[in-house]
Amino acid sequence: MSPNLTFAPRPAARLQYFLWSHPEWWTLAISGFAWVVMVDHAWQHGGHAIHHVATFRQEFSGWMWMVAAMMLPQVFYEIRRTADDSLWRRRDRAVVGFLAGYLGPSLVAGLGAAFLRQRSWTHTLAAPALAFAAAAAWTLLPGRRRVLIACHQRLPLAPTGWRADYDCLRYGVVIGAACLRRCWPLMVACALSGHSPVAMAGGMMVSVVERRSFRPPKRYAFWGTLGLAGYFAVLAGIG
What we know:
Blueprint: H1 11-21, H2 25-44, H3 56-71, H4 76-84, H5 91-116, H6 126-138, H7 144-150, H8 161-192, H9 197-212, H10 218-238
Helix pairs in contact: 2-3, 3-5, 4-5, 5-8, 6-8, 6-10, 7-8, 8-9, 9-10
């Protein structure tokens, strides 16, 4: 009797299958690189980035890196859905269109955040403490349920032509605008912290739990954000 023969796929084939099965992989790689950029920025300033007065361009760049680090992992389901609903040959093109639309609202908000950071009072520890407290209060507003539902919308995508590109772009704008309405107080608070890795990591965890829960635990979002406010309030008291 001949032995049972099993043919394990080669590593290259397994890698190719993984990349095919997860078309969002390169967007997560961008997010990982953004985290490296933000941590390096904090390291260069020795934990005092909040007091560093940067130019408008530098603040805007920091905002967009922060958005890439914190927000892209939260929409990987939407990114995968965009790829799955598109023709195979234009999957990456569809994802690029979605990301362009998704980052558009945050880009506009980043201009305001960069302008705000030009004010001297935003470079104090009291600023992020108050901003996170306001973000905690934001989680309790009754209208947030509708905003959370809007973050999970699904739009039909045309298969080919300029309409396909337009639909991907529009889908990104719709999801990006909903995410921004949900998270803008939290994102502003993170910006006022000087893009502190502690603030970003804590804010991202709060946001992920809220966004990916079937029935979002409002109390977790509230207490998590309030905890960040307390963290910076303690630092302000020590300083």
